[in-house]
Design goal:
about 450 residues; about 0% strand; mainly alpha; about 50% helix
Length: about 450
């Protein structure tokens, strides 16, 4: 039986031991736990296994003291969770676990199977016949995730099942962060052997990536071929990192952290393809103006490769006949998305404008260089004379941005807000503008300096 069954009797005791045990000794703690558990199982119509019945019968042997009934309100009065499965299919699964499976994982599997029985489920209901290594049975994954989130299963239950059966059950990175470190020994060894000079932030990124791998049913050795050293670029690892950043909440600097820690040369999505494949894209590159600088030429090439990675093409985004001065909306959106989310160079927009004569604009789409609303003009006119030119420019651009968003200063700043104020709507607009619309990072400081606010 598990150690969990050897709980101490939790009834309150008073007086001498004779009051509790007439024969001069305390009731057997293991017997107390087992009898309580057995009564609960039988009350639920669940039989004991043969081994459990033998133990139970031995506790009833002549001369052995039986534990008293639980007192009302004590923890013994509540049915205990099962820690050993009873269904033959579950017992067989445990018997056939890999011999090299760690004891901790073995215990996790056992408790999960017991948990399934508590929920009125079984392995065969959740795992389709024939599911082998690499499978990710949806019903099983859901049961594991629910058990971890809501029913007290250990966080490494998923990793245990993946290790035991070769599955690739997945969780969520937010749940993974409840773990403080990876479980697999190879991952612990990797962390232990990180370079001493590695920055603490990068060290943390590597740790979370290893935790993430376990949550996804993967391990470092599956993704990184033996002998991969400085300068290597393991394809499976690169893909796992990119997927983790795009879809599972890994920090954007995870790739840089792994490169720094192991000397690899992992690249982002945009750099997977170095040149376009489509003939129309090759033709565009061939016909670029001769005077176009090499840096801009490279940015155009990477943008065309990026389009192909996204399943798009130039002709889909640029209407026929678009010439100098044009501003194709679909192309502008693709460029902005690529810069924001896919690692395109910040000069990609400028490169396309120079190469094709377009007038593509960024997210902060300013057709004019100064605000048009009179209240905004008045604000600029009344800025403190000693305000630094850079701060003055940032305030100007913020007011232009507000007009682009259909907003105005007076909508965000209640009348009478003076030095020391912190208008919530203004603070939110500034934060959103910096994060998503290309405003300068010093915009908040500029507004605070200009108006005496305390935006954070």
């Amino acid at each position: 039986m598990d150690n969990e069954l050897a709980d101490l009797d939790d009834r309150p005791h008073s007086g001498s031991s004779v009051d509790v045990a007439p024969q001069g000794r305390r009731a057997d703690p293991a017997g107390t736990a087992l009898v309580d558990w057995a009564h609960a199982e039988q009350a639920r119509g669940l039989p004991l296994s043969h081994a459990e019945q033998q133990i139970h019968d031995s506790l009833s042997a002549p001369g052995r003291q039986q534990p008293a009934a639980p007192l009302p309100g004590s923890s013994r009065a509540k049915p205990r969770a099962r820690f050993v499965p009873a269904l033959p299919e579950h017992i067989d699964l445990l018997k056939d676990l890999p011999g090299e499976l760690a004891q901790v994982y073995r215990s996790n599997v056992r408790r999960f199977l017991a948990h399934l029985e508590e929920q009125g489920q079984s392995w065969s209901q959740l795992v389709p016949a024939g599911s082998g290594a690499g499978a990710s049975p949806a019903a099983l994954e859901q049961a594991v995730n629910e058990g971890i989130r809501h029913q007290g299963l250990q966080h490494n239950t998923r990793a245990a099942l993946n290790q035991a059966f070769g599955f690739r059950l997945r969780g969520d990175i937010k749940e993974a962060r409840a773990l403080f470190s990876p479980d697999l020994q190879e991952h612990k060894d990797l962390l232990k052997d990180l370079p001493e000079g590695l920055d603490a932030v990068y060290r943390s990124n590597v740790k979370w990536f290893l935790v993430h791998l376990e949550e996804q049913g993967q391990s470092w050795s599956q993704l990184v071929p033996a002998g991969s050293g400085a300068g290597a670029r393991p394809v499976a690892l690169e893909q796992a990192v990119n997927e983790g950043i795009r879809h599972h909440g890994l920090q954007p600097n995870t790739r840089a952290a792994i490169n720094q820690a192991f000397g690899f040369k992992l690249q982002g999505d945009i750099k997977v393809r170095l040149a376009p494949d489509l003939q129309e894209h090759k033709d565009l590159l061939r016909d670029l103006p001769e005077e176009l600088g090499q840096t801009y030429r490279s940015s155009v090439k990477q943008f065309l490769a990026h389009l192909e990675e996204q399943g798009q093409s130039w002709s889909q985004l640029v209407p026929a006949g678009s010439g100098p001065g044009a501003r194709p909306a679909a192309l502008e959106q693709a460029v902005n998305e690529g810069i924001r989310h896919h690692g395109l160079q910040a000069n990609t927009r400028a490169a396309l404008n120079r190469a094709f004569g377009f007038t593509l604009q960024g997210d902060i789409k300013r057709v004019w260089l100064a605000p048009e609303i009179q209240e905004h003009k008045n604000l600029l006119k009344d800025l403190p004379e000693e305000l630094d030119y850079r701060y003055r420019s940032s305030v100007n651009r913020f007011l232009v941005h507000l007009e682009e968003q259909g907003q105005s200063w007076s909508q965000l700043v209640p009348a009478g807000n003076g030095p020391g104020a912190r208008p919530a709507a203004l603070e939110q607009a500034v934060d959103e503008g910096i994060r998503h619309h290309g405003l300068q990072t010093n915009t908040r400081a500029a507004i605070n300096r200009a108006f005496g606010f305390k935006l954070q």
